[in-house]
Amino acid sequence: QLLTQTRTTNINAYTHQDLPFDHLVEALNPNRSLARHPLFQVALAFQNFHQPGTHFTTEPIHTAISPFDLALYLTDNYDSTGAPTGIEGEAQYATDLFDPGTVTTLLHRLETLLAHAAQDPGTRVGDLDIWLPGEHHRILTEWNDTTTPLEPTTLTRRFEQQAAKTPDAIAVTDGTTTLTYRQLNEQANQLAHHLLTHDAGPEKYIALAIPRSTHLLTALLATLK
After folding, report:
1. What is the pTM of this model?
2. Quick count: other Cβ atoms within 10 Å of Cβ 72?
3. N or C: which terminal CB in the chain sees fewer CB atoms within 10 Å?
4. pLDDT of 77
C-alpha cells in the first residue's frame, strides 16, 4: 500500500516536472541558511539509465562536497543481455553531521527493512524489522542486564533517603513553583499527618483531583506516606 501510494504521488508530481525550479523556490520563499538546503535536507534518487540496445558506462565525479545532509542514490544494473543484475547504492552525507559508522548502520538497516518488506508485502510498515544481526539480543538483553541486589524497602523510604542525601537539590518543578527534596518531604509529611486526622490509612481509598503541578506530586507522596 505504501509503494502504491508513493507511486501515485510520484506520477502526480511528474505532471509538473516542467515547472522551473527557480519559480518553485520563489513561490515557496523558504528561509535561507548557508548551513543547509532551503527546501529539504534528505534526498533519495533512483536512477534508471537502461535503454534496450544501448550500452554505456558511468564515471563518478568526486567533488568532496555533499549538497544535502544525507543523500542516497540507487542505480539499476543490467548485464549484456539486458537482464537485471541488481541495484547499487551510494550514500553522500555531510561529514559534520554524520560519521561513516553511522551512515553504514543506516544503510544496513535500510537493507534489512527492504528485505523483510519483500518477503512479506502485507506486513504493516511499523512491524517491519530493522534489527541488525545480534543487535536485538544486545539491546534488549545485554544492555538491560541491570540485575543487582536491593534491600527490601518502600518508595517513600527511598525518597526519604534521597532527601537526606541531597536536601537542597531540586526535586520537582512545574514551571511556576520549584521544590527542593527537603521542601517536598516536609510538605508531604504535613499533608500525610493531616490525612491521618481524616481517618486515612492502609487499605483505604484517597482520591486526588489536582492538576499537574507540584501540589499533585506532594499529594501523591503524602498519600503513600
Report:
1. 0.56
2. 19
3. N
4. 84
The pLDDT score that the predictor gives to residue 101 is 95
| Number of residues in the chain | 225
Neighbours of 110 (CB within 10 A): 15
The Cα-based distances of 123 to 17, 110, 116 in angstroms read 33, 16, 9
Which residues lie across from 90 on neighbouring strands?
73
Furthest-apart CA pair in the chain: how many Å?
94
Cell digits of residue 73: 542514490
Contact status, residue 188 vs residue 225, Cβ threshold 8 Å:
yes
CA 197/CA 222 separation, integer angstroms: 13
* 150 vs 161: CA distance, rounded Å: 14
Low-confidence ranges of the chain (pLDDT < 70): none
